[in-house]
Each structure stands twice: as structure tokens, then as C-alpha cells.
Design a protein that fits this description.
8 strands, globular, Spore Coat Polysaccharide Biosynthesis Protein SpsA, Chain A, 8-stranded mixed sheet
Length: about 220
């Protein structure tokens, strides 16, 4: 089986080359790297040249970008990876083995935040616990899914926020998630820049509002405000 890693990007020229370099071992093993740009105003795509198998341009919006990458992908399993999230070295082996060994068709990794403070360890631990209890994964946890199942459910919903929550709810109807204990390392920048507790409260409020049916177009304005 083959893994296609789909990476939505926007204005990542300062970090994209180093990020893609970290994935070259996976590429050399026969897996596919697809970078999907949502209309960057910098040299993101120039810096990505030669470090991936495919470069695509899409309308802006993470859901739209990931759907465009999935449509072009040739892998049996799709992995959706944020450009500030680092995979464990055995990522492809763990994903492909877990999917081929059982009846479950999708999953995610545990997450670790890059910051060194104890609070970041606590936040990540609670994120992982919440995901196990609810069966809901977030984009920070590097969601993966069989390509045929992704096509069957119609991909990510075209919404500006919470597309990861929405697809988790759909996939839960097919199988419970594979919760890999190997950790991806994702940037703690969001919490560091805006305040850890403030960010935690905001994200819980937004998720609750989404579960209660509030329009993601309204939620995205609150998120970026």
C-alpha cells in the first residue's frame, strides 16, 4: 500500500523547505508528498520545488486545499498534515499496518506541543484523552483515512473552520478511529502568541458552538478575531 501526504499551505516561505526536508525519508520509501497552496503572496511554492511530488494551486481554505490534494493523490491511504506538524519517523509503517490489520479505516496520532512548559504537556495530554473518549480527531493530530472511504463520504465539507471535526463525525459512522500513541509534534505558537488559557477557552467555546449547530462562517470570524 502507498501513502499520500497532503499538505495545505499558505504563506509558508520561511519554513516550508525545512518542513519538507523532514519528510524526504518517507518520500524515498515510495510515499507521495503533495503540497497544495491556497494563494500564497510569498515564495512558498518556489521553496517547495524539488521537495515534493506534486504542487497544486487551489482556492484558499484548508478544506478546499485538502480536497484538491486528495483528488490528485495516487495513494491507497491519505494523510492530511499541517505545515507546522512533524511526523514520527515510523509514521507510514504505523499507519499502513494499522489500517491493513483491522476493520477500522481512519485514524490519527497522539499530539505533543513544541513548547517546553508543563502547561503545553497538559494541554496535549487533554487533547489526546478527549480524542480517545469522543472519537473526534483534530487536524493537529494528522488525520489519515483510506482513499476509497474519503471518496465515499465526499471529502471534507466546504466550511471555513471545523472541517476536521465534521469529517470525524462522518467517519465515526463507518468505524471507530485508530488512535496511534506515537506522537506528532505540532507548533505551540498559537498558545504562546494569544495566551494559553485564552486559547483553550476559545477553542472549547467554538467546538461547543459548532456541535450546537452554529454556522462555521460565523465561528471563523470569532476564531480569527
Amino acid at each position: 500500500m502507498k501513502l499520500s501526504i497532503i499538505i495545505p499551505v499558505l504563506n509558508e516561505e520561511n519554513s516550508i523547505a525545512a518542513f519538507l526536508q523532514s519528510l524526504q525519508r518517507l518520500r524515498e520509501a515510495g510515499n507521495e508528498l503533495i503540497v497544495v497552496d491556497g494563494g500564497s503572496h510569498d515564495n512558498t511554492m518556489t521553496h517547495a520545488t524539488g521537495l515534493c511530488d506534486m504542487q497544486l494551486i487551489s482556492e484558499k481554505g484548508r478544506a478546499l486545499q485538502m480536497n484538491a490534494g486528495a483528488k490528485a493523490a495516487s495513494g491507497d491511504v491519505l494523510l492530511f498534515l499541517h505545515a507546522d506538524t512533524l511526523l514520527p519517523t515510523i509514521a507510514s509503517e504505523k499507519i499502513l499496518k494499522s489500517i491493513t490489520d483491522g476493520k477500522r479505516c481512519w485514524g490519527r496520532f497522539d499530539v505533543k506541543l513544541s513548547g517546553k512548559a508543563f502547561l503545553f504537556y497538559l494541554i496535549a495530554s487533554l487533547m489526546n484523552l478527549r480524542s480517545r473518549v469522543t472519537g473526534i480527531a483534530t487536524g493537529d493530530q494528522a488525520i489519515f483515512v483510506r482513499a476509497d472511504i474519503f471518496s465515499q463520504i465526499g471529502g471534507f465539507q466546504n466550511i471555513p473552520l471545523m472541517e476536521d471535526i465534521a469529517i470525524s463525525k462522518q467517519l465515526k459512522n463507518i468505524s471507530s478511529p485508530i488512535c496511534l500513541r506515537e506522537k506528532v509534534i505540532t507548533s505551540s505558537r498559537r498558545w504562546e502568541e494569544h495566551g494559553s488559557w485564552k486559547t483553550i477557552v476559545l477553542m472549547w467555546r467554538l467546538r461547543l458552538a459548532f456541535f450546537l449547530g452554529e454556522d462555521p462562517k460565523v465561528l471563523v470570524t470569532k476564531y480569527y478575531h
